[in-house]
Automatic annotation (TrEMBL):
It comes from the Bacteria. InterPro entries: ACP-like_sf, KR_dom, NAD(P)-bd_dom_sf, PKS_KR, PKS_NRPS_Biosynth_Enz, PKS_PP-bd, PP-bd_ACP, Ppantetheine_attach_site. This is Phthiocerol/phenolphthiocerol synthesis type-I polyketide synthase D. Transmembrane segments: none annotated. It comes from Streptomyces spectabilis. Residues 351-425 form the Carrier domain. Keywords: Phosphopantetheine, Phosphoprotein. GO terms for molecular function: fatty acid synthase activity; phosphopantetheine binding. One of its GO terms (biological process) is antibiotic biosynthetic process. GO terms for cellular component: cytoplasm; plasma membrane.
Length: 432
């Protein structure tokens, strides 16, 4: 809700729920956000009538549903892209691809002092970049360690050699795991840099007159990201912190970045046919977003239809109502289903289904050319928990039946899966 300070102790839920929409479509997950004025019977009514896959906010008798809308944000406030020549700046995650670009940008804009925060020492390539910036006249201070533990040290270093004028929080840890496999240790690793690091920076910079406080978020929190539940939740918490700071009249800019080319963790998406953000384009976008004064902005060239292609039921989430056609779930004709119905023998029907299952496996594995036979182990060819979710949803959509993801581990070959599916569909072998 615009201009409303979110409850930070509940932060991260939006990213978690959006990810669940992909991984567990049968749950029809709904998130209901209430305030102190919402009566219990209104919540009960919402629970009783929810159609699922919605994010609902109930406020003073009104009902709001979250939607993604393309285009520039409707409102903005007076922003600033000024970089002070006498100012000091903190960049976290500063030795990663995006963070290092930001450090270079700040120096190019005239920053005399940049505090570079990172968990590990610079790589030879990063060290070369930092040495070049120092030769140009900039002062670079290096702070190593988790930013949740070193935020005050970074602020002290920035204040020692100038006036702390801006913060860019780009720290992130990405570890893939489906919701069912998120452990406490994995969550702590992912949460530490993005969420706890942001909180430490927020607290350490209170009382400083900043021109900007920027949080690098991800489209993972905005769209949901299958297989990245912890990462989506951590970024979603950062989004809430940005909103909280803005509501309390503190500098706050949040950017949901899509995948960048050449740098960052999403480079591999180019191989899957996704459009990417070039470094030059991304830095230019950062400049323009700051100047325009937008508080929360998504900057991404992602093709949403392609994004949800492997999770067709997710496309029917209310979040995508304004950007995707409805009915992308299980509706429509299925040629393979028609072929199975028309098959004249059990062996013919089994052959049709095996061909279809193997083709779906290849698609879910990125078009692999590896040999896949009816008895090939799905695990041995690289089907993991996330691929299993994709495969079960692809087969469920084309065959019009419910296929629990766990079945793939019980029937871990194309033939075993085909036999189970044929039995589920009501086809039993005829007597010779």
């Amino acid at each position: 809700m615009a201009d409303e300070a979110p409850a930070l102790d509940q932060g991260g839920l939006h990213g978690l729920v959006r990810t669940a929409t992909y991984e567990h479509p049968t749950l029809s997950t709904t998130l209901i956000d209430t305030d102190a004025t919402t009566p219990a019977d209104a919540v009960a009514a919402e629970l009783g009538h929810s159609t699922g896959r919605e994010e609902v906010a109930l406020r003073t008798g009104q009902r709001f549903v979250a939607r993604i809308r393309p285009g520039a944000p409707c409102t903005a406030e007076s922003g600033t892209d000024r970089v002070r020549t006498d100012g000091s700046y903190i960049v976290t995650g500063a030795l990663g691809g995006l963070g290092l670009l930001v450090v270079q940008w700040l120096v190019e804009q005239g920053a005399a002092h940049v505090v570079v925060c990172a968990r590990t020492s610079p790589s030879p390539q990063a060290r070369k970049v930092l040495d070049g910036l120092e030769r140009s006249g900039a002062t670079i201070s290096l702070i190593l360690g988790d930013i949740r533990d070193t935020a005050e040290q970074a602020v002290a270093a920035a204040s020692e050699k100038g006036t702390l004028s801006g913060v860019v929080h780009a720290a992130a840890v990405v570890e893939d795991a489906t919701l069912a496999n998120v452990s406490a240790k994995l969550l702590d690793r992912v949460w530490a840099g993005k969420a706890e690091g942001a909180w430490s920076l927020h607290q350490a910079t209170l009382g400083h007159e900043l021109d900007f406080w920027i949080g690098f978020s991800s489209v993972a929190s905005l769209l949901g990201s299958p297989g990245q539940a912890a990462y989506a939740a951590a970024n979603s918490w950062l989004d809430d912190l940005i909103a909280w700071r803005h509501a309390h009249n503190l500098p706050a800019t949040g950017i949901h970045w899509g995948p960048w080319s050449e740098v960052g963790r999403g480079q591999g998406m180019a191989q899957r046919g996704f459009a990417m953000i070039s470094p030059h384009e991304g830095i230019d976008a950062l400049h323009r977003i700051l100047r325009a004064g937008h508080v929360q902005t998504a900057y991404s060239p992602l093709d949403l239809s392609r994004w949800v292609a492997l999770y067709p039921q997710a496309a029917d989430a209310a979040l995508f109502t304004d950007v995707l056609p409805r009915g992308n779930g299980t509706e429509g004709n299925s040629s393979v289903l028609d072929a199975l119905t028309a098959a004249t023998s059990d062996s013919h029907r089994m052959g049709i289904l095996l061909d279809h299952i193997i083709a779906c496996i290849r698609d879910c594995l990125g078009g692999t050319t590896r040999t896949i036979t009816p008895t090939t182990s799905l695990v041995m060819i690289g089907v993991d928990s996330l691929t299993a979710v994709q495969l079960s949803q692809r087969l469920a959509r084309t065959l019009k039946i419910l296929i629990e993801t766990g079945i793939l581990w019980v029937k871990p070959t194309p033939r075993g899966l085909a036999e189970w599916i044929l039995h589920r569909m009501g086809y039993t072998p005829t007597s010779p």
